[in-house]
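RECORD TYPE: protein structure
NAME: MOB kinase activator 3C
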Amino acid sequence: KTFRPRKKFEPGTQRFELYKKAQASLKSGLDLKAVVQLPPGESINDWIAVHVVDFFNRINLIYGTMSEYCTEKSCPIMSGGLKYEYRWQDDSKYKKPTKLSAPQYMCMLMDWIEMLINNEDIFPTRIGVPFPKQFQQVCTKILTRLFRVFVHVYIHHFDSIINMGAEAHVNTCYKHFYYFIREFSLIDHRELEPL
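PREDICTED:
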């Protein structure tokens, strides 16, 4: 229900080339702290856009692989342990922070992110079309909410991840995500406290 097909970059575009560069560096065994740094001469907004879409794809896949263990019964509240509860709010149906089960929250989150990254006014794909002024603020909100998926998975479902043999993948994805958000100060440090 929350698993989506991967969002792809159009071959021949600048973002496709940045995506290939980012993927090649990740596969080369380089230090993840170095891999997230902005390549010389590249646009910060393009670099962030490529990573936001890639993290959406990866985190969606991580949650999709273990979503059968995250049910209305096992996770009636979207939380990160006893200390952290995450409520959903958007600009349409949920105007006030609303308590949801983890599966409901994940579904709302993935739909919301997909809508944003497919919106040409926010994530333009045509050459010469500028990013909106609030682009990095939107990305901060997306990444903050994606971080909550890691929190929930690590605290409530890591045994399932281990049983699937996927912990190395999840840990590497998290480290890449963490170094990226820290490199560009994209998430408030208070949000990071659960992990």
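COMMENT: The radius of gyration is 17 Å.
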